[in-house]
Task: structure prediction
Amino acid sequence: MSANDPFARLPEAATFTVTSKTVTDGGAWPAEQFSAGVPGGKDISPHLSWSGAPEGTRSYAVTVYDPDAPTGSGFWHWAVADIPATVTELPEGAGDDTGSGLPAGAFQLPNDARTARFIGAAPPAGHGVHRYFVVVHALDVESIGVPAEATPAFLGFTMAGHILGRAVLTATAETPA
Result:
């Protein structure tokens, strides 16, 4: 695991709270949140609930990012844009192939495996503990205006000037050698 801070060069933002019935902040992902390519993995997105977003929030985006992936650029596991400001919770499994648990108007962008869904943790065997930053971004626009086929990195670039607040939960995963 590296000390890479994915927020170090981003504009500062107010903080608010995100919690989960699936995983605790700093805790390990349960088996269901691992990739289907890992024994016991099911690629099931976590339950998320958030509160205390800054005044003026008009929508949210959710991202799950592993900065410790051995790629030079990390690995985006999930990105959801245009979640209405009235929504403050996503059920476990919302990030399936159809986005069945997402609210009207919200959509999933392709992750780094190029699938528009949640893809679970799969750190290389023996690579050590990886951190998974689960972030709810409070935005000052109703729609961030990115195309559905955009990358999570492009979403992040586009959001940079619209982020009012950031709620962060960090999960971990490791695959033994």
Q: What stands out?
A: Strands lie at 14-15, 17-19, 48-51, 59-66, 75-84, 89-90, 107-108, 130-139, 163-173. The mean pLDDT is 95.
